[in-house]
Amino acid sequence: MRTPRTSSFTAHHLVISLALAGALVAGAQAADTPPIKPGLWQVTADSQQLNGKPLPDMSAQLAEQMKRMPPEMRAQMEAQMKAKGVQMAPGGGNMAIRMCMTKEMLDQNRWQKTEGNCKNTSMTHSGNTWSWKFTCTQPASEGEGSTTFTDSTSYNSDIRITSQRNGQPQTVSMKHHAKWLGADCGELKPLAPPPKP
To answer: Rounded to the nearest 10 degrees, what angle do helices 59-68 and 4-23 cross at?
Structure first.
């Protein structure tokens, strides 16, 4: 049975990984614009592994944790996520987040960063598949991934993040799929831009 600390660590990394799956496919070059529509997107985790071992779906655990939070704390957490342009998707199934991306953000690659102070270090294209590498500082980690754009309203991503925990390497691997929900983002604000250096 996982300790609360491990569950918290895992959930934190899964949320970051989901955000990265949608955020880091932006090209390292300003001329690269992802071939997807602006608007409201939902990114869903298909599988997650920690050091090569499957992780349980965190949706039920996160939902239970949210239920047990005092209403004020839950509202504050949801508000903080929304302020950054990220929202937990409602309903059951695998863990998913929603985010709003504008045309300007896609054109200018201002959707590269949501959490972790991450930046791309390389990007290659092969047909409709983009492969990329990145580094992050919070927590210190590095990773690589690939995204295949099915069309302008859907894509699939595969991402791997390696970091250190208690002096031991930790590798989180995830597969995701994303779908465009519509041009109207409703109350969800666009992804927060990265802080200026």
So the answer is: 110
Q: What is the pTM of this model?
A: 0.73
Q: What is the pLDDT of residues 27-77, one digit of tens each?
A: 334 447 888 999 999 988 888 888 888 876 665 666 677 778 888 887 887
Q: Which of 19-28, 36-45, 104-113 has the highest mean pLDDT?
A: 36-45
pLDDT at 181 over 70: yes
Classified as helix, coil or strand, 81 is: helix
**Long-range contacts: 119-125, Cβ < 8 Å, 24+?**
120/24, 120/26, 120/27, 120/28, 121/28, 122/28, 123/27, 123/28, 123/29, 123/32, 125/32
Domain boundaries, the chain: 4-110+118-182
Q: Which residues contact 136 (CB under 8 A, 6 or more apart)?
A: 116, 117, 118, 119, 142, 143, 161
